[in-house]
Amino acid sequence: MEKELIFSPKWHLAFCFLILMMFQAAEAEITCRSCQSGNKWRARELMLQFDTSESATGLKREVVGQGDGAGRSASAESVRFPCAAGSVECAPAPAEHTEPRRNIDAKNKNVESVKMKVSNVKTSQESSPGLTFSRKRARRSSDDGEEITSPAQSQDPGEGARRVPRWSGEDRRGAGTPRHDELKVDSTTFALTGDSSHNQAMVHWSGQNSSVILMLTKLFDFNLNSVTESSLWRSTDYGATYQKLNEKVGAKTILSYLYVSPNNKRKIMLLTDPEVESSLLISSDEGATYQKYRLNFYILSLLFHPEQEDWILAYSHDQKLYSSVEFGRRWQVVHERVAPNRFYWSKMGLDKEPGLIHLETSISEGQALYVTCKLQNCTDANKGKPFPGYIDPNSLVVQDEYVFVQVSAAGRPIYYVSAKRDVFTPMKLPKYTLPKDLHVISTDENRVVAAVQEWNQNETYNLYVSDTSGVYYTLALENVVSSMGYEGNVMVDLYEVAGIKGMFLANRKMDSQVKTHITYNRGRDWSLLRAPSKDLRGNSINCELPYCSLHLHLHVSANPYTSGNIASRDSAPGIIVASGTIGAELTSTNVSVYVTSDAGNTWRQIFDEEYAVLYLDQGGALVAIKHTPLPIRHLWLSFDEGQQWKKYSFTNTPLFVDGVLGEPGEETLIMTIFGHVSHRSEWQLVKIDFRSIFNRRCKEEDYQTWHLHNQGKSCLMGVKRIYRKLKPSSRCVMGKTYSVSMTSGPCDCTEADFECDYGYERRTDGKCTPAFWFHPSSMSRSCTTGMTFLNSTGYRKVVSNNCTSGVSVEYTSRRQQCPIQAPKGLHLVTSEGTLSATLGTNVTFLVFLEEGDGARTSITLDFGDGHALTYSNVSSIEDGIKHVYKAVGIYRVTATGENILGSETVMLYLHVTCQLEHIHLSAPFVAVKNKELNLTAVLLPSQVGTVTYIWWIGNNTEQPVITLEGSVACTFSREGINAVTVQVSAGNIILQDRKAIAVHEYFRSHLLAFSSNLDDHNPDVAEWRQDVSRVIKKSLIQATGVREDQILVTILPGLPTAAEFFLLPDKQLTEGKAEKSSAHLDQLSEVLLSALNQNLVQFTLRPGVQVTVYAAHLSAAPLVDTSENHSGSAMLMLLSIVVVGLAVFVIYKFKRIYETSCTCEILHRTPHIHRLNSGLDYHSSCVMDIF
């Protein structure tokens, strides 16, 4: 069964590229390393996971803690730290839930969890320790056919079965019968009886000066994707014995996760499995007793306040953010539609209120807002909007004194930063960096370190460092290696050495080879690592720089007591233990373990296999446990910084080691090893007490001084540093009262204490000169006449560098009077970075001035709609200028900056639109063959902005006609039914309408009217008109006997209800001749008009609603009046006038159709496009005005 030591990196970026790559390349996301002290935190717990499946093709197994070291490579073998499910770092087990991020900071820096991307920096050592690891059950075999597989040799699907490895001769002989002459450590073993089926465990050591350990074991069903059993164990004697607490929390209660307050380790929170019940169990006495509280939501992650121990934020599965000020006993909703893991507590000294919350809320797809909210009163009136406008989703990062957001404009991301909660300013990277991806790694000591993947990079990142404002960035190191993690996260190989400020290690790709580099001055200078002169056996190593050097794997453990590939401690400055290789490049084969006692100047090989090395007694001793798939019973101890090692037994029976948990604090002297004796045994917890190994307490004479240097250069970061360290020959306990002592003396400044300023690049001779794109004069753009500014010399002192005198005057920026200059580099953008706006909404314009006296430069903004505003200076419009447009159109917005020396104007064309709701294709029901007609698309509302029309006319279905106006002229050359389809595209909305046009060479048409009761039932929708048209046609046929193929009927839109019927000639009778067709149509017209005039055409719309159809413009009364008061001649004259009027009407109607019907054979590929008069509402077009 294969075991892996799974690490979580320390200064590694871990983030998801998922969203990024699915959208435009410009869509990148900012991520943070640690958003503030005490933010997203969890106790370091030990989590074991193993699969009880008997199938050889089971799930991949993971072990955090002890393993074979798999995952040391930064390639596809990159490993993952399976953090406590449901804690701040991890999503709950169900795959559909959001997976949190993990960020680790220094000085009680938080462990924060994020789905998108994560930058990990200094591992916290003040929060309560713990560990998370997993274990697998294996298949067994024996003579009866059952196969035995070691837990460390589980196969991935498709792997062949492996035989269980045999123990070494020493361990096999010593099993159960230890040798009397071997060294031993004090240890006790406790078995978690009854939990042999449980395949996950979380362990938490309550805190410093506490003997309480809590352990939650669970049976996770991978088929059901939920926890089905759990047990809670508690130890009060440093792990020597444990008590089962299932009865105290409820015998049937199934627990999922464990949380501990970072400010009061006595306060424990347990979360039940929401599949069974959603509840919290809260303890205030280190887990001795619990109270249960029901929840009405499902917790995905928690965020504890950095100072208030009872203040908690909870993120739910439905994107709601809840708050509690009573440690989870009561909850209230803070905000809805909150982006996962984009919520932060306020920071004292920067934010006005301790209960302020920074959060990102989703507005729509692709749009979010950065808002601030009060903890107990998050109403619209109390919300703040620090950034004026929308931001890109999942881009808000609040970290220390900086806030970062991202806004995409014109397909490219713009990154904004706010320092000390001041106004937002675009981050200034070198002009042609053109980042595809950017991640904030660190904000320590008033500067930002960012990893940027540039337009021409795919697998590497460049490191950039900022000035104190976080605005101006310069290159620190190119082509730092990155790799894809287990969950699709990216890992950047950068490691900050603990205990020594300014010291970093990085793996850089050079000519397709990965090499490890070191810096002692925060990235100002980098060099390769010198390889040891001798190997473990004393043989000489021939390795000369720069062709050969030492290379290290820079993955680290998320837990300070479970070693990763590299480890260092604040309490042991200069001591670094790491796995690596010697040669031309870093490899994943022939990996050994190396140690340095002088901060990387010299290295020694201590093991030729991989070991987990942990620090004891504040670094006064080192303990090593072998990474092996075999059961072991020994560990190794060194009291002289790794020069000599002695082997000690910690158990009589060899143990498959799954993980190690150390006592909280740097002075670790008690450890617990978690493992199992066999594949089906209970968990074995071995408590090891190292206190008996040490002879005495350390005295003053046990310490010595050590001078930090870089290959003999003692001035680093502008000072000479002298540390107080334990002598290698002293075997004593430093204890909890020990603290690192360091004295320093200033050094004269040299060129090495300065890095290139923004806009400058270092040449091969080491000098900083302006880049080809940079104009040094532009650095004075924020100047005010009469004030002064710092005129850059091309250099700036490295952050935290404390050198004095020397070349300081020559390299330090010089203060000069601000020059008087005309405005130059005026920029006008909308806050959303778009060129469109919605009618009736606020549009915020932002005006930036690159050069010129901003305080004495007036700004005039003309909105293009007859309104304009003038401001006395640029600073008065830092929050933007808001305006509401009341009409749709394209507006030319102009901004003019002017002072006594000149002016500059910039323009922006803004499209103001409203949403298209409906379109109607206005077209005749019947058209004349070979005669031009007009097709019109009518919009609702009539003016929506810039619109594109796409027409498919007749049989031309492959080549649509595209127009910018809603009317098109066309001609049909063939008789029959022709389809016309029009699509209207307005913004991101596309609507369509379709009509069928009957084309004939000869026809007659007449208008119809109806009894008024039809209007009461006319909903004026197309479907109703079609259905009633069929009913009218049927009624006409029944009343007149006209054949069905000779009559067409259509109801016209609008009220009062009107219709039109068309008569078609019988082609067999007329033989297609005009004279015969005309005569035949006259006969049919007389028949239909007679029936209509005699009220013979009626239909029943619904029971009780009888509708009569009339010929329009004719009296419904009889044509002949039989009254005795009228003479026969008078009646004859009246009849003649009516007949003549009818003839004139028919001729006029035929002429109207003849002239306006349009054919749809595209005789000319470019149709005639014109505007229609607005006389008829349903023929009117939407005209776009340009102002």
TrEMBL record:
SMART domains: VPS10 (SM00602). Residues 846-905 form the PKD domain. Keywords: Cell membrane, Cell projection, Cytoplasmic vesicle, Disulfide bond, Endosome, Glycoprotein, Membrane, Postsynaptic cell membrane, Receptor, Repeat, Signal, Synapse, Synaptosome, Transmembrane, Transmembrane helix. SUPFAM superfamilies: Oligoxyloglucan reducing end-specific cellobiohydrolase, PKD domain. It holds the Pfam family Sortilin-Vps10. One of its GO terms (biological process) is post-Golgi vesicle-mediated transport. Residues 96-115, 168-185 have a biased composition (Basic and acidic residues). PROSITE patterns: PKD. InterPro entries: Ig-like_fold, PKD_dom, PKD_dom_sf, Sortilin_C, Sortilin_N, VPS10, VPS10-sortilin, WD40/YVTN_repeat-like_dom_sf. Gene3D superfamilies: 2.10.70.80, 3.30.60.270, Immunoglobulins (2.60.40.10), YVTN repeat-like/Quinoprotein amine dehydrogenase (2.130.10.10). Residues 93-186 are annotated as: Disordered. One of its GO terms (cellular component) is recycling endosome membrane. Residues 1-28 form the signal peptide. Belongs to the VPS10-related sortilin family. SORCS subfamily. This is VPS10 domain-containing receptor SorCS2. It comes from Gymnodraco acuticeps (Antarctic dragonfish). The gene is LOC117547462.
